[in-house]
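Rotation project, supervised by the postdoc (A.L.). Task for the rotation student: set up a whole-complex structure prediction and record inputs and outputs verbatim in this book. Inputs entered:
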Amino acid sequence: MSFDFALIATSLPKILQGLGLTLNLLVVSTLLGLLLAVGILLMRLSQHAWLVWPAKAYIYFFRGTPLLVQLFIIYYGLPQFGLLRHSFLWPLLREPYWCSVIALALNTAAYVSEILRGGVLGVDKGLIEAGKALGLTKFQRASRITTPLAVRLALPAYSNEIVSMLKSTALASTVTLMEMTGVARTIVADTFAPYEIFIAATIIYLVLVWFIQTAFTLIEGYANRHVRKG
Amino acid sequence: MTGIVDLEQVNKFYGDYHALRNVDLSVAKGEKVVVCGPSGSGKSTMIRCINRLEEHDSGRIVVDGKELTDDESKIESVRREVGMVFQAFNLFPHMTVLQNLTLAPRLVHKKPRGEAEEAAMKYLTRVRIHDQANKYPSQLSGGQQQRVAIARALCMNPEVMLFDEPTSALDPEMISEVLDVMTDLAREGMTMICVTHEMGFARSVADRIVFMDNGEIIETSTPADFFAAPKTERARTFLGQILAH
Amino acid sequence: MSLLDGWWDDFFFGLLTVLQVFAVALAIAVALGLLGASAKLSNSRLLRALAQVYTVVFRGAPELLVLLLFYFGMALTLTWFVQLFDPSVKFIDLPPFWAGSIAIGLIVGAYMTETFRGAFLGVDRGHIEAARALSLNPYQVFWYVRVPQMWRLALPNFGNHMLSIMKDTALISIIGLEEILFVAKMANSVVHRPFLLYVTVAMIYLAMTTVITLVVGQLEVRANRHLRGTR
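Outputs recorded:
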């Protein structure tokens, strides 16, 4: 058995052909997921049980089951219904790309809404009271005090969630998408050199993780510039 | 220099910062010494050196005939004789009051549980808190927690008690309940070294007051002299600020 | 549910497999987490660096990739090794059960490392000092003061890592382990009801993760009972 370093070098460019799709999946599903998360958060924080309970059930289901199973339900399961096959959604649900995006977005929304809720609950009650005492309206308190502070508190956990999303995009390879892990799997099938190829892919993922973490460190540093000692 | 606690020319640095400068102090058995001075003057550092929670860099520290060096067994034997009470109480949060008190006697003195608990109840009664024995620290007020901490230290039958600002973290109405316990302890003849800003306590209990500033002991006198006529300008300023309240 | 009649025993054995993988992977993850945390807290630069590489790699690489690397890599290595002694052997692989359990254990062990390290450092310094001032020796300080408090600090993350292990077991169907997702795929090729089958799988997982959440919740209540401030 030999370990072929040159093979790592030559396979890197091939695997990088899947980078575009990996990043595409990451960005599109993260943004859709964030929008959805804010909606779920507002439901979860509302005073009405009929809004709170669906939000809780949603979070419970998507955090309690494997993403791979969710993806299979959407990609293999939904076409079982003839009604869907004839609806306007079919052009989307037929495509493995959109199924992956939908599964990733639905999944991350559950986690992100809880991360944001943690941020909201972490805001010092005294500051909200100070806002009330100053005569700010409910909306002003939410937009000027709660939201900016909650976002700052949520940033570290959110950066972990983005990293976790990047890793989750690899699951799209199980529904035939040729993102980086999909490309790597095809090359391994041809060369049967699992160590070299998968290590090459891992290196690229680690570099991406590093970029995400560095970006968030900068964002956090900027967001928390008010606590830096002068 | 034949006290129960002797410090000779002790120096301590944190990096470049000179925290203790040539500190000499000898405390006789049964003596009560109050250490005061502005914050950052080295008071806490000094008493934390006495049971080697901090290591001194030069000079000698001898407790009951045992010099503190890197020798772990000697350090542990000194700690067996020296009780300490902290500003932040430092009760073990995951243990009940009684468990806090019996932990060290059982582990260190290998006392059977029944005996350790009996002794613990005796000390809890002395600090007037025996009815809280099975509560957790978080269920007690600050004053009660500090009295438990004093009882915990007493359970080891120490020769010397160190107090590191024991009332600084307390609400005003709870300070006296802790000081009362400390005063009782002083009357019973315990050797005590107390870092505190409670000047009323110092006046009524202390045999000697040690005033520190900038890592040095700059004045040592009886309470009567210290309060009536401080010898140094810095002590006068300090007293002016403390007593102005 | 009569559509699934005849498949329930397969699901049951699939679930048993899931639980076995869970147990093995958890044991590996805890062991690696303790080792990793000790290495990160040690004085040896070499150990610290090794532990750092371990956590960076296994927390950064996709779980699926680690699993595939481990399964196919081990097959290659094992075949090579066995052929040294018996050249007639064509191919040998690590059973998917072990490849999957070890891979998941390795991944979650990296997260456990950070959790245990954080819990170790999270114990209030004052409590450690108080124990030393009472002349407890370092061993006693560790077992009586540090460990009980570490447990409380580590529990919430520990619970999340258990949930990760449970959910990651679904990945092992990809390398052919006959757990519940694999059973659903097989059943689908006969009864052609993918939605029903995969939702059934989801519900079984939901039941498992619910049990874990409830158990961890109870442990947390126990671990935090001293913090209830009922003055």
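Student's summary: The mean pLDDT of chain B is 91.
Supervisor addendum: The radius of gyration of chain B is 18 Å.
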